[in-house]
């Protein structure tokens, strides 16, 4: 085998290794993804044993009580797809990670009136309030306003 062929095989092997590592990384992160509507069968199979093993550990909130509270999480299903959290002030990632860590979906919390200015209909928060000193990007600020109906207070750096 020539040197050129050996180098070509080594490059292909390295590329295959990178693709494999990326695939494992994406599969591991898939449970925290709040935008996808379903998980792949391999992610569900990997996810179930982890969920079954973790209820004994619990989260900080649940470990004080001794037993997890809430609705048992269905295998391979996110809590936000199982229960209506429309009025819950927590973001989907937080709710789903509690479910993944404990095996139980947390009870929906009733949010009080969010802090900030009421968002004007049809107007983005960044067009309504001056966020020049705020370190957050416009998309984050506007999505908070769209989700809650209130423009968040300006955070100064």
What do you see in this structure?
This protein has 157 residues and is mainly alpha-helical. It has two domains: 3-105, no CATH class; 117-151, no CATH class. It is 47% helix and 5% strand. It contains seven helices and four strands. It has helices spanning 3-29, 41-53, 60-63, 79-82, 92-102, 125-128, 138-148, and strands at 71-72, 104-105, 117-118, 150-151. The strands form two sheets. A two-stranded antiparallel sheet has the order 1-2. The longest helix is centred in the N-terminal third of the chain and has 27 residues, at 3-29. The radius of gyration is 22 Å and the shape is flat.
Q: How is the topology of this model organized?
A:
Layout: H1 3-29, H2 41-53, H3 60-63, E1 71-72, H4 79-82, H5 92-102, E2 104-105, E3 117-118, H6 125-128, H7 138-148, E4 150-151
């Amino acid at each position: 085998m020539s040197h050129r062929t050996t180098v070509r095989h080594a490059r292909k092997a390295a590329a295959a290794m990178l693709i494999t590592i990326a695939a494992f990384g994406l599969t591991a992160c898939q449970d925290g993804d709040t935008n996808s509507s379903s998980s792949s069968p391999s992610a569900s199979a990997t996810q179930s044993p982890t969920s079954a093993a973790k209820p004994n550990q619990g989260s900080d909130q649940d470990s004080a009580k001794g037993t997890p509270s809430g609705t048992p999480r269905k295998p391979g299903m996110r809590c936000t797809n199982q229960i209506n959290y429309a009025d819950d002030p927590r973001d989907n990632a937080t709710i789903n990670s509690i479910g993944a860590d404990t095996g139980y979906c947390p009870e929906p919390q009733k949010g009080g009136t969010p802090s900030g200015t009421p968002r004007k209909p049809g107007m983005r928060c960044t067009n309504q309030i001056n966020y020049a000193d705020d370190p957050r990007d416009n998309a984050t600020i506007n999505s908070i306003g769209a989700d809650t109906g209130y423009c968040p207070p300006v955070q100064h750096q």
